[in-house]
Write a structure and sequence with these properties.
159 residues; 7 strands; Jelly Rolls
Length: 159
């Protein structure tokens, strides 16, 4: 009776090892959310506290809030560019509608792009130099009365 062809034991072990390695690599490679930091907006209606993730490396800024489906109302992301320069953002692969708050080096709100469109590749410009961008859930800027000239308190900003 002829023997049935089965993959060799070493081949089976190799395939199993590759599967296990790829599984753990994808789990480790998945973005772990950074620790949250306290940030405060000071508006005419008073102070408003949020907790933000800091995105201050090129890789963190490139990924931002992409692929996330939810963000608590009191949270956001602070993009620290480390210099004042015109900033261009987009919503590619971003499922959450956002308000983008552009901020100067000294922590002053310079512009707000409210209610940005999820998944859009349209450019959202700071319309002038910005040191940082704070992304919040859409409607937050209006809800707290945030406007250009208001202050942002966080260690990233120098007064």
């Amino acid at each position: 009776m002829p023997r049935r062809a089965f993959p060799s034991f070493n081949l089976v072990r190799l395939l199993a090892a590759l599967f296990v390695c790829s599984y753990f690599a994808s789990a480790v490679g998945a973005r772990a959310e950074a620790p949250l930091q306290r940030l405060e907006f000071v508006t005419s209606s008073g102070p408003h506290e949020f907790h933000v993730e800091l995105a201050d490396t090129p890789g963190e800024r490139a990924k931002g809030l992409m692929y996330r489906k939810h963000m608590p109302a009191d949270q956001g992301m602070l993009f620290d560019f480390h210099e004042e320069t015109p900033v261009m953002m987009w919503m590619k692969n971003t499922y959450i509608p956002l308000d983008m708050v552009f901020v100067s080096r000294h922590g002053m709100v310079t512009a707000i792009a409210a209610d940005t469109v999820p998944m859009s590749e349209a450019t959202i410009s700071s319309d002038g130099p910005a040191y940082a961008v704070i992304e919040l859930n859409a409607g937050t800027a209006s809800r707290i009365g945030l406007k250009p000239g208001d202050l942002v308190r966080h260690p990233a900003f120098k007064r």
